[in-house]
Amino acid sequence: MRHRDFEGWRYYSSRMDESFPSLSSSKPLVAFGSFQDYLGRDRYGNIKPKNEWVHCINWDLIVLDEYHFGAWNDNAKSLLDLGDAEAKRKQAEEDEVMSESGIDVESGRTWDDSDVPITGKHYLYLSGTPFRALATGEFMENQIFNWTYQDEQARKEAIGGPYSEMPTMVMMTYQMPQDLGAMIEQWDMDGFDLNEFFRAEGTSFVHEKAVQKWLDIIRGKAPIFGDGSSPLNVCPALPFEDTRLLDL
Question: Who is most buried in 76, 133, 140, 186, counting CB within 10 A?
Answer without folding.
Answer: 133
